[in-house]
Amino acid sequence: MQIDVTRDVFRLAQVFTISRGSRTEAKVLTVRITEGGVTGWGECVPYARYDETLESVTAQIEGLTGTVTRAALYDLLPAGAARNAVDCALWDLEAKRAGCRVWDLAGLPAPGPEITAYTLSLDTPEAMQAQAAKHAHRPLLKIKLGTPDDMPRLEAVRRGAPQAKIIVDANEGWSAAVYADLAPHLVRLGVALVEQPLPAGADEALIGMARPVPVCADESCHDRASLPKLKGKYDVVNIKLDKTGGLTEALALRDAARAEGYGIMVGCMVGSSLAMAPATLVAQGAMVTDLDGPLLLAEDRENALIFDAAGVHPPRPELWG
Fold first, then answer.
1. Was 195 annotated as part of a binding site?
2. Residues 212-237: pLDDT tens digits?
3. Which one of 70, 107, 143, 262 has the fewest beta carbons within 10 angstroms of its own beta carbon?
4. What is the pTM (predicted TM-score) of this model?
5. Quick one: 187 exposed, middle or buried, by C-beta within 10 A (0-12, 13-18, 19+)?
6. Does CATH place domain 118-312 in 3.20.20.120?
7. Is 218 annotated as a binding residue?
8. What residue spans define the domains of the chain?
9. Are 317 and 303 in contact, with CB atoms under 8 Å apart?
């Protein structure tokens, strides 16, 4: 078994801003695993919020030796970007060698399209209203907030897209007091979900707090080990493969979270269609699907995912799985 890792850069269609900063390109790592003349591949997006860099994740992947299995990965790599790319590449490799689709290997029904959110970058209220108007035809818009001046932005987006379903991502940017003040306005403006309003290390304040809009754990939820600490704070969990460490754990987290009564959101980092492809399996039947990474790019992989009025479609075999 040969494991290779390379860096790829995809230009964004426009500057993408969240409360933590701005970017103009997506920097990803592509892992290719070859065995018996067959190659499977996967993609990950190292994230500084979780103390990951391109260099550190590359080193983790290059440290793997010999024949690696998905089961063994749990002992070899922690949950995170490195394990994600390797796990997804192994799924792809297994499917190609078996001559079947990944969902057949996983014992899952054939997936279909899922409506995905489209993310509006953090900007001035005027610019965000213009963005919202441009994308008002989309059924689900996601707004990046997380600053002391969010109400004018939210009002502006609602004016720009009066019919769209809206979800809000604060990216840990609010305090408990700010969230409590904003909550009634979220209801008034028809917000369907709010992601990670408080910092992951300070979300105890959510216990006992009124949640008139469902609250989703993102930075507070990585894998199944996260679930015990979410009780009483969150209604929904955001499953991202770069957090869970791959498709294997993402599917397990989905089942465990549902068994405990949580709603499911499936999200992504800003990456190419290769990164989104495995997540389309996890997104089947989810409360919210947020796999719009490729829609934010100026360029994508060959055989990219199809996005249309029905949503994001599962990958063709030429791409993955």
1. yes
2. 999 999 999 999 999 999 999 999 99
3. 107
4. 0.95
5. exposed
6. yes
7. yes
8. 2-101, 118-312
9. no
Q: Yes or no: is domain 2-101 CATH 3.30.70.20?
A: no
Q: What is the DSSP string of 99-167?
A: TS-HHHHTT-PPP--B-B-EEEPP--HHHHHHHHHHTTTSSEEEEE--STTHHHHHHHHHHH-TTSEEE
Residue 37, token pair as written in the block: 């003349």
Closest CA to 319 of 288, 294, 286, 284: 294
Q: pLDDT tens digit string along 283-311?
A: 999 999 999 999 999 999 999 999 999 99
Buried b (16+ CB within 10 A) or exposed e, 134-171: ebeebebbbbbbbeeebeebbbbbbebbeebbbbbbbb
Rounded to whole angstroms, the Cα distance separating 217 from 232 reads 11
- Both tokens of residue 266? 């499936």
Query: Would you give the DSSP letter of residue 232?
Result: T
pLDDT score, position 202:
94
In a 10 Å sphere around its CB, with 0-12 CB exposed, 13-18 middle and 19+ buried, how is residue 37 labelled?
exposed
The pLDDT of residue 76 is 97
User: Is 223 annotated as a binding-site member?
Assistant: no
Contact 236, 260 (CB under 8 A): no
H/E element holding 256? Answer: helix 247-259
- Cite the active site residues: 144, 240
According to the model, what pLDDT value does residue 19 have? 64
Cβ-in-10-Å burial (0-12, 13-18, 19+) of 212 comes to exposed
